[in-house]
Write the structure tokens for this entry.
Amino acid sequence: MPFKLLLQLGWRNLFRHKRRNFMLLLAICVAVAGVVVMNSLIRGFQFDMQEAAVANLTGHVKMLAPGYLDDPNIEKSFTLVKDWQPHLPGVELEGWAPRIRIPAVIMSERETRGIQLVGIDPARENISFLDKVELAGDMLSDADDRRVVIGKELARQLETEVGRRLVIITQGIDGRNREAGFRIAGTFDADGKGLEKLFVFTGVTALQNLVDAEVITEVSIKVVSQLDESLAQQGLADSFLDLDVLSWQQLEPQAAAMFVFADSAIFIWFLVMMGALIFGLMNTLITAVMERIKEFGMLRAVGMRPRAVVVQVVVESTLIMLVGVVSGTLIGWLLVLWLSDGGIDLSAYAQGVELAGMRSVLMPRLLVEDLLLVSSLSLVFGILAALYPARRAVKINPLEALRR
Amino acid sequence: MSDVVVRCSGISRTYQEESVPVQALQDVDFEVCKGEFISLAGPSGSGKSTLLNIIGGLDRPDKGDVEVAGVKLNDLNESELSDLRLQKMGFVFQAYNLIPVLSARENVEFIMQLQGVSPAERASRATAVLEQLGVEGMADRRPGELSGGQQQRVAVARAIVTRPVLLLADEPSANLDSATTRELLEMLRTLNETHGVTIVAATHDPIVMSYARRQVNLRDGRIVEDKQNEAA
Ligand SMILES: Nc1ncnc2c1ncn2[C@@H]1O[C@H](COP(=O)(O)OP(=O)(O)OP(=O)(O)O)[C@@H](O)[C@H]1O
Ligand SMILES: [Mg+2]
């Protein structure tokens, strides 16, 4: 079959009814651009949510003592051999951090609050949100640092400030309470008040001294490529048989569920847009076939095979779709670029936004695989929309057509 | 024997028009030999187009056999009929039926493209035929930019450029004035005499009949007269 000929005919026929086809193209364009922009917003939201879940001291994979999750306290702890390094062949690590994380009570002269006391090695916390926070005062200098870093919101609630002292009460390894005074090295401003109220950081060695045990309660690991997540999890589980090795999806099931939901939201949105579009396309194609009955009859009369007539209609539909999809994608892409300049400020809805685990500025993210999926599925829809009109065209009896 | 191009034996065709059956052809025997120029004449509704369409494989008889270039049409399916039309026949319709989005040259090359003729061959054949029909100056115009006579020439060019075994024309002069009709017929005669193209034309037009060398008259679906035209 001379496909080139059909392609040429199809292309020329695009310009036959300029206004009608232009309107249709415009509709496809708007729909595709809409899908592209919406996709990138959903992806941005999805990415933020995951980042937040992972940065929230979770990491991609975390090792915990069994039972810690149900009852987090210093007894649910473990030790690492001296100079331990994660050994995970084939996995590129962004970093790893050992921590103690235990519940504690913090007191200023005026207020008392329940918090999570986290002993860290500050040099290793490039993998958590601590790396990105705005800090007033100093960060902890090292694992031996006996000062604390607290959230700005907590400082406000405790009516205290950098340089002042706080008292922290927590349980030691023997089950008895320990009480100690800490000076505030700095206050952090995280993107959301939840973290600022929850976490109080001090040096891990300093905290070990307080609870009288050279243990840790967790090791958090962040990989470079998401694809390595399960490999890392497996590798750690194999070498630490007596620890729980959990992924971020297991640790943050709500975020993980939202992540999956966002995937389907992209698909549903696409189907709704395309579903509406396909009827417009079909209508245009049927009109185009009906007003060219004579021409199709002639084509059949001079020897064009029925199958070539079907291909002709499908080619025309696909061409319209292709032009629409290409220009729509381009426009969508430009819109996303424009939105990316600064992102979309959601701070007016800060509370709801924070609940959903998002940042106050939503950055659209354009994924190449989404673009490919949208364009190829659109073309498939273009072909599907052409099938019924093509059937009409192929049913045209050349004799009837020529008798008109 | 071998120079019989069309052989129809005992063909009948009845149309069901709003529950009243119309006998368009009744038990017609008809043969066309290679190199003939035949006009099918007769009053309106006598079955001229029906016979032409059956020969062209566009319509099927209810009864009887049709053989074109040695192939029995009764046995062919739609695709095979399409191929036969494509490879063996040229059609000239009353309304010229050119493809509006293609230029004259592209229209002429169109069927060769369907046949899979190489581009170089296509171009040289199209040029030759357009020249032969005196429309080479219009090659790049689209049908909408051509007069009726010019369009009909392009349509003829498209039909003959593939060197068909059989050229079928239904009322080729219906939309032409008599001067243009004569030009067209001179052209058909040249094709017939110098290139040996076999032509069957259904017509009302006495000018067309006068150019054809054999005239077959139909009435009520039957052949009532079959004569050689000595003057032609
Ligand atoms: N598709 C059809 N459906 C119904 N009746 C038809 C059909 N085609 C032809 N007929 C009828 O068959 C008869 C013969 O028609 P045909 O077109 O062969 O005549 P014709 O000699 O070509 O007439 P004209 O000179 O008007 O072209 C007519 O009565 C016509 O009405
Ligand atoms: Mg007729």
Summary: The first strand of chain A starts at residue 61 and ends at 64. Residues 3-53+256-403 of chain A form one domain.
